[in-house]
């Protein structure tokens, strides 16, 4: 199986139009994903791919780990909550209600002024729910048919923005080690917070997911042509990571 189908945190962006904005109710209607088209990852997501996630963590589920409404996939930057999530023939339809927090108010302004133009999802592949379809009419000789993913969140994205900006910056920066250190330091801080176990399940879950996202950035950096010392620093676990028992804090998402 292709390495891209491991259990890491993945991001998939779509240039989908915002369906509607209601300033009075602070609700925004959108599509988070389209069905039936081959995207830039050479994937075709089909209807039903989000069914299990919607049942387990959707709006009407009993879970306290519901699919989150974020900005730029940042689990410290929740701008509201989803009040509707469903699959239709076109794709994954969502209605998000923006909070009255500073972050929610800023997002409302950005929606109204056209700064937020796109949305994307944070998810992981399910290894046995992916099938290679041979098709000589396609430039790559085929595509991956994706029948299920584990959906964690949907994010508002500023037009022209890239959620993996720290990774891209490393590729052209003269301060690679500083950027890597910044990411790893935040990961270590998160691990310590999880070990303390303080706060609600929602807080701990958000911290866990933030750690997954940062880990995915380090994986991307490690795949670049960096100095050996930089790569070694990325792939070697810190002492805190070596001794940390995730199972004692929160249950991993299956």
What this model shows, in words?
The protein is α+β, with helices and mostly antiparallel strands. The chain folds into 2 domains: 3-158, no CATH class; 165-248, no CATH class. The protein has 7 helices and 11 strands. The protein has helices at 51-57, 102-112, 165-172, 176-196, 201-222, 228-235, 239-243; strands at residues 10-14, 20-22, 27-34, 43-45, 68-71, 74-87, 91-98, 116-125, 130-134, 142-146, 149-158. Strand 9 (130-134) and strand 10 (142-146) form a beta hairpin. Helix 4 (176-196) runs antiparallel to helix 5 and helix 5 packs antiparallel against helix 6. The chain is globular, with a radius of gyration of 19 Å.
Assign the structural class, choosing from mainly alpha, mainly beta, alpha/beta, alpha+beta, or little secondary structure. alpha+beta
- Tell me the β content: 25-35%
| Spatial order of strands in the largest sheet | 1-8-11-5-6-7-3-2
Gyration radius (Cα, Å) is: 19 Å
Write the layout of secondary structure elements.
Blueprint: E1 10-14, E2 20-22, E3 27-34, E4 43-45, H1 51-57, E5 68-71, E6 74-87, E7 91-98, H2 102-112, E8 116-125, E9 130-134, E10 142-146, E11 149-158, H3 165-172, H4 176-196, H5 201-222, H6 228-235, H7 239-243
Parallel strand pairs: 4-10, 5-11
Antiparallel strand pairs: 1-8, 2-3, 3-7, 5-6, 6-7, 8-11, 9-10
Helix pairs in contact: 3-5, 4-5, 5-6
Task: Please name the defining characteristics of this protein.
11 strands, 32% helix, 3-stranded mixed beta sheet, 7 helices, 8-stranded mixed beta sheet, single chain, 254 residues, alpha+beta, disordered C terminus
